[in-house]
Structure formats: structure tokens, C-alpha cells
Specification:
about 450 residues; about 85% helix
């Protein structure tokens, strides 16, 4: 496909439509799995801590492998990487489906499935996030990010959980089978994107390593008896470390990006705790059935939709700074309400506000980072930011389980409410209007770096 045709297709909005559809279908599957696995853990007789551990397995890979996955996304074709990850998720859920049809899956099986699905999610999300600047012209990225973030939240937090609760009520095989089909559709949708999705100006570390190995092999094979493969392997490992370091250094030296990442670390950990505690809280305190629990979680998605459609208005009326701050307010309400007011309507209302704030943050934070980060670093920056931010997902879920088993569910929510409240002052001191104005046009003029 010629460059002219690619630019024409990008300009037509085709890629935005594909990305929104892809986000919707895969996040519906994620939402179904997010509900299905904890409910299956409850059915398997798991304690509050053990059920929380299932949520932990879905997010633990963000902490363990996000950095090398970011390097991979900057070295290979990002679309092919995302397609492979979707197919990997498909296989994992199909295997769990097979196990569930043979009998109720044990906690060990659920933990293993959660880890595999979580790993594939890290790869897919990192690759797709890095593809957006190549897929969407700069003048349409805020709108595209709003639609993508809104679809992500609605599908993952609203429709997915609601549908997941209903499907699990029908049968675990129905829920898991639906998720398997959704990941298959996602892999097909990925092939419809138009453009070139390998990083521009990337450091081809693997090729450099191969060249170094060739030089060593043709030069002198007598020193130490090292083979070409061994030397290339060492060069590849060294280059991997250097690439990881480059992404981390870029993030840490940029004051605004660093502050946003550290703030979202606490917010994401708190959301993970909320999701880990809610299955036990909803069934034991609120006395909801699986469908009711799914609808309760789905209030986040309804709020996310409200945030997506109102991002431009909120940014214009309040400014980006206060739109970002809305996430702190919403997350605080999500934590404090279950601790002080155990009523389904109140918890659902707080989840709605939290979902709206979360989408406002996601849209604006993504647009800021896409303006500031060079294309060749998008994978590594994204993985470094997720390590600081989303790496707290398993920590939040794990700590929530420990606190719930030791002190009870409501005190566990209260601990995270305090943690979120402590973010307000450092956030407002650092994320200023001047910092955000500089980020809006970092090069002194609008520029599509593609």
C-alpha cells in the first residue's frame, strides 16, 4: 500500500473506527473475565483473600513483565504483536473453558488462567497504545482518545461486568465461550488497520546484536571459545537493559509525566483494591446476586461513558488540570462510601463518579503523553508508565485481601480512601496550568510526528 493511500485512509477516520471497535470487543471480553474468574473463585469456596488473589493474577504481569514488553513493542511490528497477544488470550480462555466443562475449576486453575490472560493483556495493551499516534492524525487524537477511553470503560467496567454476571448466572461455559469468541473477533479487527506500525527511528538492537555476532564469528573464534550465538545473546541482553533504561530515564526526568504516573499508581492500586474487595462485599454485606454485582461494577462504565462524551466540555469549562483532579475526587468517593455507607445505591453512585473521573484522566493523560513522547520511545515509555501506574494493580489487590482478612472489608476500603486523600496537595502543587500549557505544544507548533 502506497504512502498516499495510507494517509488518505488515516484521514478518512477508518483507523479510529477500527480502534474503537477493537477496544469495545476486547474489553467486553476482559470485563466478562474480570467478573467470571472471581465468581468462580467464590463458587470454589475461596476466602476473601483467595478471591482477591484471583484479581491479583490478572494484574500481576503488569508488575513483572511490562518493561521488556515495552522494548518488544519498540522493536517489532506493533500490530502483529497485538494480534498475537489476542490469539494467546483466546487459547488461554479456551483452555479454561475446557477445564470448566470437565468440572468446577479449582483455585489453582483459576490462578494459572489469570496469569496467562494478564500476560497477554500487557502485550496487547502496550502494542495498541503505542500504535495510536501512527494510526490517528494529531488533530484528531483527543477525540479519538475520548472515544477509545470511553469505549474501554463502558465495555470493561459496565457492559462486560453486567453481561459477565448474567452469563455466569447461566453457566461458566457460556461466559468463557463468549470471551473466547470476542478475542477471536479482536484479532481479525486488528488486520483492518491501515498504516505502518513499526516504531520510527527505533534502535534495532536485535539486528545490532546479530551484526556483532557475525563480526565476532568472522574475526577470531579462538578467544575464550565464545560462540557467535553466545556473544549475540549477551549483546541482545545488554541492549535490552539499555532500552529499558532509556524509557525509564525519559519518564523520570520529565516532571509532569513523572507526577502523573506516580499519582495514577496510587489511584490504580485503589481501583484494583476496590475490584478485589467488591465480590465479597457485594455478596456478604450488600447481599447481591451475581447479576446485581455485575450491575454494581457496571456503574463505573456508565460513569466512564459520561466522561467520554463530556471530556471536551469539561476541559473547556474547568481546564485540563481540574479534569484530571476529578479522578482523585471520584476514586476517593469509591473508597470511602463502602467504608461508611454500606448501601448498594450509594456504592453504585460513587462508582459512577469514579468512572467519570477515570475517563477524564485517561483521555487527557494519553493526549499529553502522545504529544510529549517520541514515536521510537512510545512502547518503552508506555511500559515504564504502566510499571509505575498499573504495576500497583497487583499490590492493591494483594493488600486489599490481607487487610480484609485481618480487619474486615469496610476497614480495608477506609485505608485506601486515606491513601487517595493524601494525593491532593502534591498533585495540585505539581500539575499546574503552566505545565499543562507547555505539554499542549511541546515543540512550539502543532506537529504530526508520523
Amino acid at each position: 500500500m502506497t504512502e498516499t493511500v495510507i494517509r488518505a485512509e488515516r484521514g478518512s477516520g477508518r483507523n479510529e473506527a477500527v480502534l474503537v471497535a477493537l477496544t469495545g470487543i476486547t474489553n467486553l471480553a476482559d470485563g466478562v473475565i474480570k467478573i467470571s474468574l472471581p465468581i468462580l473463585a467464590v463458587a470454589a469456596g475461596g476466602s476473601a483473600g483467595q478471591v482477591a488473589a484471583v484479581a491479583l493474577t490478572l494484574t500481576l504481569p503488569w508488575l513483572l513483565v511490562s518493561l521488556p514488553v515495552g522494548v518488544l513493542a519498540d522493536r517489532v511490528d506493533r500490530r502483529r504483536l497485538a494480534v498475537g497477544a489476542n490469539l494467546f488470550r483466546l487459547v488461554a480462555i479456551a483452555a479454561l473453558l475446557s477445564a470448566s466443562t470437565a468440572g468446577a475449576p479449582t483455585l489453582s486453575v483459576l490462578y494459572a488462567a489469570g496469569l496467562v490472560v494478564g500476560l497477554a493483556e500487557v502485550v496487547a495493551d502496550t502494542a495498541v497504545s503505542a500504535m495510536i499516534p501512527a494510526a490517528v492524525p494529531v488533530e484528531r487524537r483527543t477525540r479519538a482518545n475520548a472515544w477509545i477511553a470511553g469505549t474501554e470503560t463502558v465495555a470493561n467496567e459496565f457492559c462486560g461486568p453486567a453481561i459477565g454476571g448474567l452469563l455466569v448466572g447461566i453457566g461458566a461455559a457460556v461466559a468463557l465461550g463468549s470471551a473466547t469468541a470476542a478475542f477471536a473477533v479482536g484479532a481479525v479487527l486488528m488486520t483492518l488497520l491501515v498504516g505502518r506500525f513499526r516504531a520510527h527511528g527505533e534502535h534495532i538492537a536485535v539486528g545490532d546484536a546479530g551484526a556483532a555476532g557475525d563480526h565476532c564469528a568472522t574475526g577470531d573464534s579462538r578467544a575464550g571459545g565464545d560462540s557467535r550465538v553466545e556473544r549475540a545473546s549477551r549483546a541482545g541482553r545488554a541492549s535490552m537493559v539499555a532500552d529499558i533504561r532509556e524509557g525509564l530515564v525519559f519518564l523520570w526526568r520529565h516532571r509532569l509525566l513523572r507526577t502523573l504516573s506516580l499519582t495514577i499508581a496510587v489511584l490504580a492500586g485503589s481501583w484494583s483494591a476496590w475490584l478485589a474487595l467488591l465480590p465479597s462485599y457485594a455478596t456478604s454485606v450488600l447481599e447481591l446476586d451475581p447479576a446485581g454485582y455485575g450491575l454494581l461494577v457496571g456503574a463505573i462504565g456508565a460513569g466512564g461513558l459520561a466522561g467520554a462524551v463530556s471530556t471536551s466540555v469539561v476541559n473547556r469549562l474547568l481546564g485540563v488540570r481540574w479534569a484530571l483532579f476529578a479522578d482523585l475526587v471520584g476514586t476517593f468517593l469509591m473508597m470511602v462510601v463502602p467504608a461508611v455507607l454500606p448501601a448498594a445505591w450509594a456504592v453504585g453512585a460513587a462508582a459512577f463518579v469514579g468512572g467519570m473521573g477515570g475517563t477524564l484522566w485517561t483521555v487527557n493523560a494519553r493526549t499529553i503523553s502522545q504529544s510529549l513522547v517520541p514515536d521510537r520511545l512510545l512502547g518503552r515509555y508506555g511500559s515504564a508508565a504502566r510499571l509505575l501506574g498499573w504495576g500497583t494493580l497487583p499490590l492493591g489487590a494483594g493488600l486489599a485481601g490481607v487487610l480484609a482478612d485481618a480487619f474486615g472489608l469496610r476497614p480495608a476500603f477506609a485505608v485506601f480512601a486515606v491513601a487517595v486523600a493524601l494525593l491532593a496537595v502534591p498533585f495540585l502543587r505539581t500539575v499546574t496550568a503552566a505545565e499543562l500549557a507547555a505539554a499542549d505544544d511541546p515543540y512550539g507548533h502543532d506537529q504530526d510526528r508520523m
